[in-house]
Amino acid sequence: MWNVQNGVSQGFDGTKSWSLTPGVAIKPTGNIFIQLSPRWNWSQNEAQYVTTVKDPTATTFGGSRYVFGYITTRTLSLETRMNWTIRPAMTLQLFAQPFLASGDYENYREFAAPRSYDKVVYGRDLGTITRNAATSRYLVDPDGAGPANAFSFADPNFTSRSLRGTAVLRWEYRPGSTMFFVWTQQRAGGDAYGDIAFRRDARALVADRPENVFLIKATYWLGR
Known about the structure:
Layout: E1 2-10, E2 16-29, E3 32-54, E4 64-87, E5 90-111, E6 119-121, E7 128-132, E8 137-141, E9 151-154, E10 158-174, E11 177-191, H1 198-207, E12 211-219
Antiparallel strand pairs: 1-2, 2-3, 3-4, 4-5, 5-6, 5-10, 7-8, 8-9, 10-11, 11-12
């Protein structure tokens, strides 16, 4: 059994998004059930907030400059479930979800005026902007030779990754009495790449330090 969901949207302010969510459920044997649910999402936003800078010359916005960026975001995940009936009194349930997300910023800007959708881009419509590769910081002079002071901010690009997994072994050791053995693991990390490269990010995810939790739960039926 399989299904596919696809969604596309575009906002009046220039935002765009596209998502694809296929899914498949298979039963290779009578006692095993496997479900795979990958998801891909891509979106763009013309005014993603980056930082606020105090500037007495920016009287239009009360002495502050609000910096935004044009961001392209991508997310990729795979939800995996498996149920295995080992025997009538014993079952194993597995769940895993690797997740990748990235944000790529460009064309840093500010709004031209309050209550307006018009924007001015640094280095094109307003002042200058340069990036220092050694420090991964941007330097902005918002009005060139004008009175405003230059300011800087860190490159906000990101690539995040995580993995969540759970295994539950259920054993009914006598009628009405059950033991549960549970193992959960989480991994997480991030870099400033701004994109998704599956092989690179998968290797980094495997290298991230895991957090493991083990639990045992038991119930006993006091029958007559």
